[in-house]
Amino acid sequence: AEYARGHHEARAPASGEGDTEGGYLQVAYRLEGVVPELKPYLRGEWLEVDGADPLLAGRLEDYRAWLGGIRWDFASTAALKAELRGERFGDASWAATFVAQVSFAIPNLGSPSVTGPAMSDRGRGSWSPRPASLGSVARTPWRTW
Questions:
Q1: Is residue 11 part of a domain?
Q2: DSSP letters along 60-87, please?
């Protein structure tokens, strides 16, 4: 689950201020005893843009979504995902969309201080670069990929 709230104020000569809020809640369960590589999930998402927000009003619309899908971790660093989503932008009608995605990670790319998932981590969440040890945190800049 995640929640975010942004408050924006215009600077002179413009005026106005507003708040934009959004978030999501996801429930997922790995089928350990049956097929451990499969993980079905459900998620709800929302974004509410204040009409007075000087930064986002007119650029983004309110958003609502419900989705359900399944993720198959067919390798330690690769997955296939299929989901069905129902989405609504602003006051428009709900629309259904089918989404399929293949994703993979290339561990240790470009930095000897970054480690990838161990084979025992297979399918246990998503992979992200992390320092090799706590001692290297102060010396190693974080990278966004």
A1: no
A2: B--EEEEEEEEEEEEETTEEEEEEEEEE
